[in-house]
Design brief:
The protein is an alpha+beta fold. The chain has twelve helices and seven strands. The longest helix is centred in the C-terminal third of the chain and has 15 residues. It is elongated.
Length: 192
């Protein structure tokens, strides 16, 4: 889907790499290897992304290292877009109908940024009545590609609403964390 919004595949690949690894610094040749593109195309895209302030660079010896600027005004928005276009996020978006009756599905920002479960111990949270065997197959496929576990939780809409009303600690943490909505409306998800 991002290919339809952005014309440069190299830029998309660089964005996916840099946005999902915000603590990492990459030198140009490492980026070239990661995105499997021509060095001049990568340099051009790095220059453009640095020019708009999305990337920062620093020189060390004869190498130039790049890092994503997480304070950039569009960082969170772009990270959310990337999350919906790769891995488990992409699978969930593309298979929303096959998943069944899912009212809300979200990924934690920590997971999208490559950190995995943190305070919540949940990376993926669904509300509704999904086809659990299909969901499990999507998660297992994504885990295999990531080479790490994806912690997920599913609850019915009734249970979710009841636990929101009763100030459940787990739900309060889910609602207060950074997230990318894959299915459903952000406002309705967070409203009491």
């Amino acid at each position: 889907m991002l290919e339809q919004l952005f014309i440069s595949e190299v830029r998309i690949d660089v964005l996916k790499l840099m946005l999902t690894h915000p603590e990492e610094q990459y030198h140009v040749r490492a980026i070239v290897r990661e995105v499997d593109a021509e060095i001049n195309a990568v340099r051009r895209e790095l220059g453009r992304l640095e020019e708009i302030g999305l990337l920062t660079s620093r020189r060390s010896s004869n190498r130039l290292y790049y890092r994503v600027n997480t304070a950039h005004v569009f960082y969170a928005d772009l990270l959310s877009m990337v999350a919906k276009d790769m891995g488990i996020g992409k699978s969930m978006v593309e298979n929303a109908k096959r998943l069944g009756d899912v009212k809300f599905a979200m990924l934690s920002t920590a997971f999208v940024r490559g950190r995995g479960s943190t305070v919540l111990d949940v990376d993926l949270f669904l509300v509704g009545k999904p086809d659990l065997s299909f969901l499990k197959s999507l998660v297992e496929h994504a885990e295999e590609k990531l080479d790490r576990e994806i912690n997920y939780s599913v609850m019915t809409l009734e249970e979710f609403n009841h636990r929101k009303r009763s100030n459940d600690q787990f739900i309060n943490r889910v609602l207060s964390q950074g997230r990318t909505m894959l299915i459903g409306d952000e406002i309705k998800f967070g409203s009491r």
